[in-house]
Amino acid sequence: MRYVIGILTVLATTALFGGGAFAEAIDKEGNSSTWTFFQKDKAGAAAAQAEAIKKLKEQGHAKVSSPASTGMDHGVYVVIFTAYEHKGEARWSHGFGIHAKSEKEAEKAAVANLKKKDKFWKPDYGYDVKETKNF
Question: Is residue 2 part of a domain?
Answer without folding.
Answer: no
